[in-house]
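Researcher: Please predict.
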Amino acid sequence: MLAAAQALAADASAARPGGAAPGPHFVPRARRVIHLFMNGGPFQADLFDPKPALATYAGQRPEGANLRTERKTGGLMPSAASFAPRGESGVPVSDLLPHLAEHVDRICVLRSMHADNPNHGPALFQMNNGTILPTRPSMGSWMLYGLGSANDNLPGYVVLCPGRPVRFAELWTNSFLPAAYQGTYVNHSQLDGDGLIPYLGAPAGSRHAQRKMLDLLQRMNAAHRDARGPDDALDGRIASLETAFRMQTDAREAFDLSGETAGTRAAYGEGPYATGCLLARRLVERGVRFVQVYYGNGQPWDTHSKHNEQVGTLCRAIDRPTAALLADLHARGLLEDTLVIWGGEFGRT
């Protein structure tokens, strides 16, 4: 699901000197990304990709299913959801997502994507890093590398998850890019400043005194680097210390939801995913280029048992917050240049 932008590119197109390749054939609009990640793999036929033939052949076992698999497979199972065309576009949307269906005319549904590996770990890498091995930078790292930060007081790439997704930090790795482009992981299950980002609070003493201590530490780091030669990891640490110093005020404000109106909080609803969506809006509003919101710990969309019951619960948790995020971005004039991606590492068969 892509919302309100046509492509990722630089902030403005410009002629390239020296006879280099021309810019894109359209004016790029997207300046920031919110990636809503349903880790575990949602079943596409429950949500945006109706498969009516599943009902026709329910219970039958086609020859293609006679494969050796990790778990024994049964016959074909139709989705319990019903679909109806929504909006002026007439895109069919499941009745499991009634609030999100109201925004379907702002949504592009892609049904042509596929994964090359049926295991969660490699598929998570493929979706995030473009390969089934953790050897390439994540797409958030690439975007920050290409566009640069729009707010030096906050990380340019933030990953929100109330827990740890499978493969954890490898999913937002900078790989061979400089360390400054790695995603900053935030467990937003606790909303107080110290719980969100450990050691964010300023130590005792004045900010001026802290600045002097940091300057001394940075001079020592620079001397260490100069004596031993270039070191990307050390350069990244030096840059991170500066960002952390500035984050002591800006990050606390960005993650403080007390200033949101009661109406806004009610629109998003409650729960970790709803909080993540609201925090994502606040972060991109403050110049963060790339924000990922993982649904939950582990792989909650990996529904191997009690599928229909689990999917109903999961959809109730994401429907209202996702719709509220699109409406909120639109109302603030941010949807025109924000790319919102919704999906998982693969679908289900």
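Model: The beta strands are 2-3, 32-37, 83-86, 91-94, 107-108, 157-160, 184-186, 290-294, 338-343.
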